[in-house]
Amino acid sequence: MDRRQHRKAGGTVVAVIMLVGSGACATGCAGSGVAADARGPADPVTTLRRAADDLRAAGSSRAGTSMEMATGGTRVTIRGEGVYDYRRQLGQLTVVLPQDPTGATEHRPITELLAPGALYMKNRGAGVPVDKWVRVDTATLSDGNLVTGGATDPYAAAELLRGTRTARYAGRTEVGGIAVRHYRGTADLAAAARAASAGNRAALAAAAKGFATAEVPFDAYLDDQGRIRKLRQRFSFVNGQQQTPVAVASTTLLYDFGTDVDVRLPRPKDIYAGRIAEDQPVDHPGE
């Protein structure tokens, strides 16, 4: 990728990950079932709609995320790693932005804290002091923070399945050495918002209005306890800066269920209340 292409890719990253701009500155048809599955109904739609409840029952896990964006012939991938507490709906991710064409890392990893109705980011760049957090109300984001943070909130991703309209069982396979059942289907964001928990309802409703289409195709891989092990969802939205469609594929991997999770939200004095430079790339703060 030459420098001109890289700058274009960088612009996509800025537009998607830091979509918040100045607005946040002050603050079915069911396919063949699994008749031999002993844990419940063979109906894939019913199984998928309750997947978020099975995560709450599991309590917590580690999470890996990958977000691929394609626009204008340019593709970038953003990766994250962290932990999530499904009962408290609190998580922490370290999000790594793409490298430059030489393989060097241009940006510090961004620390993200996920909470009901809020996204906190540290190492945000764009003039934000290195010791400060940026807080974003996810209900104010046109994508409900399914895309903005560069990683889809794992529990929000699971709750999106509450809006499953059509689904079919695609067979047994493995994820990370664990036997899973593969389901393929589509979910409706508006329906998911109506069925979601209070913490995700407003954000999913915003996404239903903000995306180019409220229909979300997905591939879900559930273990024999009904827990999501892998979830790939495909979104389409309009880049607010260029008014061009952006295709996004978000993949969430969940493992090490029951792991200890200690997420502490920032104190009010540690949250940045100044203006974020809208035209400044996501780069090392102060540069």
List keywords for this structure.
disordered C terminus; eleven-stranded antiparallel sheet; single chain; 6 helices; 35% strand; 11 strands; 287 residues; globular; alpha+beta
Please give a quick description of this structure.
This protein has helices at residues 3-17, 44-49, 51-58, 154-160, 189-195, 198-210; strands at residues 60-71, 74-85, 90-96, 110-115, 118-122, 133-137, 164-175, 178-188, 215-222, 228-238, 245-255. By secondary structure, the protein is an alpha+beta fold.
Description of the structure:
The protein is built from six helices and eleven strands. It has 287 residues and is α+β, with helices and mostly antiparallel strands. The chain has one domain: outer membrane lipoprotein receptor (LolB), chain A (Clam). It has an eleven-stranded antiparallel beta sheet with strand order 6-5-4-3-2-1-11-10-9-8-7. A hairpin with a 4-residue loop joins β2 and β3. The longest helix is centred in the N-terminal third of the chain and has 15 residues. 44% of the residues are buried. The N terminus and C terminus are likely disordered.
